[in-house]
User: Which sequence fits this backbone?
């Protein structure tokens, strides 16, 4: 009798061709494995399928904390590895705003890493420049997420795409 493995892995689909104007929200802010405050990736999520006999395969998502990016949360808040505590100090979501110019530049690097892991092609220098410029501009510096990071990501992806076509 053939033995069947209780689990099998499911290949993750790379996200390369989404809408640039919603890329920051869709790929960074809405990713539950990314810190809401500083945008570091705190967990790796692997979707596997669990064989449950008669019922066939059930998809199950496993979260593995990234050791260098996370630290243990208070015991009362431990939820089997699902607690998203981050080295920036945020536990279980929430964010601190406004942030300094320097911090915004650091968070831009975190955003670049997250998008890079998702195989999003973009011009990273455009993203860095745009974050700096928007953070210096009094009319856009106040709302970092929607007025600084989101448009910087959009522009960087659009520039990246144009470079590919050239
Ligand atoms: Zn964080």
Assistant:
């Amino acid at each position: 009798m053939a033995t069947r493995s209780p689990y099998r892995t499911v290949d993750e689909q790379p996200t390369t061709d989404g809408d640039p104007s919603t890329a920051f929200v869709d790929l960074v802010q809405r990713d539950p494995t990314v810190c809401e405050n500083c945008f570091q990736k705190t967990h790796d999520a692997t979707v596997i399928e669990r064989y449950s006999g008669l019922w066939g395969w059930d998809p199950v998502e496993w979260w593995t904390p990234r050791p260098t990016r996370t630290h243990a949360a208070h015991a009362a808040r431990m939820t089997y590895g699902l607690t998203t505590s981050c080295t920036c100090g945020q536990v279980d979501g929430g964010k601190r705003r406004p942030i300094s110019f320097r911090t915004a530049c650091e968070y831009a690097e975190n955003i670049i890493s997250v998008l890079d892991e998702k195989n999003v092609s973009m011009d990273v220098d455009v993203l860095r420049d745009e974050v700096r410029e928007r953070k210096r501009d009094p009319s856009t510096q106040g709302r970092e997420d929607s007025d600084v990071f989101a448009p910087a990501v959009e522009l960087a992806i659009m520039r990246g795409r144009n470079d590919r076509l050239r």
